[in-house]
Structure formats: structure tokens, C-alpha cells
Design brief:
Helices cover 64% and strands 0% of the residues. By secondary structure, it is mainly α. The N terminus is likely disordered.
């Protein structure tokens, strides 16, 4: 065997391909799928990323299926109202905290503590 291959026969040095991760993050998979959806050829994306074409096709199918399922999902009116009320409560709590902070700066902190706040 020549010196440009390791003991397992894999290329080394300048011939060695860039290391590919064992697991791909969802973000990285999405980036590759978006490249495909924008019209880049499958073989070019597969070559650049060193991911087999069949795997890229599977990621694209899963990505599109997930989007379709999300668009089909109906939100229950009670759930929608709950989310609206939770958002409003969060807004009111922030305003209360800001008001308390201003009152403390003005010297009314002791009165607030007496009232249990």
C-alpha cells in the first residue's frame, strides 16, 4: 500500500475528504434541505456536504411532510383564548413590576412592603 493511505486503506493528507459529522443537527439538515428547495442540484449538495443523495431526499421529504402537517393543524378555540389570556397576564405583570420599581425609586418602597408586595 502506498504512503498516502492509512492502514485501513482510506486516503490521507490532501486526498482525505473533510470530516463529516456522525449526527447532523436539525439546523444543519434544514440548511441543506433549503438549498435543495431553492433549486440546487441534489448531486451538488450531496457532494458538497458528503451526505448520500438518498439521505438528503429523505430529509427533504420529512421536512415537507412536517410543514404540511403543521398547516393542517387546527388550534382549539379554548387553547387560543388561553394563550391570549396568558400573554395579557404576562404584559400586566411586567407593567406592575415596572410601576413597583418606579415607586421604590420615588421612596414608596416601605409602603409597598407593608402591603405585602
Amino acid at each position: 500500500m502506498s504512503s498516502d493511505h492509512d492502514s485501513a486503506g482510506a486516503p490521507t493528507g490532501a486526498e482525505a475528504p473533510a470530516e463529516t459529522p456522525e449526527r447532523w443537527s436539525a439546523q444543519r439538515k434544514t440548511e441543506l434541505v433549503v438549498r435543495l428547495l431553492r433549486g440546487e442540484p441534489l448531486d451538488a449538495v450531496a457532494r458538497d456536504s458528503q451526505v448520500p443523495a438518498h439521505e438528503l431526499e429523505e430529509w427533504r421529504r420529512v421536512f415537507l411532510d412536517g410543514g404540511t402537517q403543521s398547516l393542517k393543524k387546527r388550534i382549539d378555540p379554548e387553547e387560543r383564548e388561553l394563550k391570549r389570556v396568558q400573554a395579557k397576564l404576562g404584559e400586566v405583570m411586567m407593567r406592575l413590576e415596572l410601576a413597583e420599581g418606579l415607586l421604590e425609586k420615588k421612596g414608596y418602597g416601605a409602603e409597598l412592603r407593608k402591603r405585602g408586595r
